[in-house]
Input
Amino acid sequence: MTDAQAQGLITQANARLNAAKSHEVRRKNREAARLELEALRKAVIFAPTHAATAVELVQEMDNSRAAARTEKQMQRIDELTQEAEQQPAANWDEQQKRAQVLDRLSAAKDRLFKQWCILAGVPMPGKRADVPAKKSRNQAAFQPPAPVESSPTTADPAQPNP
Output
């Protein structure tokens, strides 16, 4: 280990080394995801009776990954919001800037939450997908009359029976 590495300084040599390590990890993760997706697609081709489930599984996997990324982003925004709230504001200009930062973070969190709800299959606030639609009071009170059955009448001796 050189003196620069021991002190934690960034040099051209250790920057290249760290960039190569980072690139290798990203390449391995991308390759693992590609192989996993390819295996699922083969399952769709070779199992036509379960094709719908395999396709749904691939879509669900993609959605769960995206939902996990969205959750991480929301956690990061929460951390930034806490940091911004804890910073003291000395004058009016700093208060305005802090208010603007908090407003933008809040809007970003709201957008991410909507995306997460869609990806995770969670109903949005105020929407209850699990409750069936209620009948209105007028529909429940109105019941159509029962059909009238024709009762056999006594046979008229003047008319022949069919």
About this structure: The CA atoms of residues 50 and 134 lie 36 Å apart.
